[in-house]
Amino acid sequence: MKKTKKTLVVPLHRELVTVLSNLERTDRGDKFVLPGMAGKGSGGKHGLSEGFKRIVRRAGLDLQTVQGGGRRKISRRTFHALRHSFTSALANAGVPPEVRMKLTGHATESIHQAYTHHETETLRAALAKVPGLSCFELETNHV
């Protein structure tokens, strides 16, 4: 399933390459890492999102469901949340925004910013880089 018409080339993390290398080797295009989820749409009761939730529950993890707007309940641990986690992990590791955008496929900075969540420690480290006030020359304007 494609969300956009553009094709992205994204390198795989070395640990994922190791895991995938240990799976059954085949050149057939009909073999999938998660065959039960292949070909499903993203929404609906039988879509990828609900399928991912079932996997999370079977793994014994809390979906962290909270009350959304109106009657809707929102789960914080979803397949879509992985995009937020990936983008944020890259940002907190100091990867520049333009590289993160290439890896995530975000077309605009505004969309990308919505997926980027900086950890408090990252913000503290950035603030620690600001020199002390004694290095600034204070100017006074007399009118």
Structural description of this entry:
Helices cover 38% and strands 4% of the residues. By secondary structure, it is mainly alpha-helical. Among the domains are: 40-79, no CATH class; 80-128. The protein has a two-stranded antiparallel ribbon with strand order 1-2. Helix 3 packs antiparallel against helix 4 (97-104). The chain is extended and about 70 Å long. The model has no long low-confidence stretch (mean pLDDT 82).
Main-sheet strand order equals 1-2
Major sheet characteristics: 2 strands, antiparallel
- Helix percentage: 25-40%
Q: Count helical runs.
A: 6
Overall geometric form:
extended
Radius of gyration based on Cα positions: 21 Å
Mean pLDDT: 82
Distance between the termini: 65 Å
Unreliable sequence segments: none
Give the arrangement of secondary structure elements:
Layout: H1 14-21, H2 48-58, E1 65-67, E2 73-75, H3 81-92, H4 97-104, H5 109-115, H6 120-128
Antiparallel strand pairs: 1-2
Short structural summary:
This protein is mainly alpha-helical.
Entry keywords:
143 residues, 4% strand, mainly alpha, single chain, 2 strands, extended
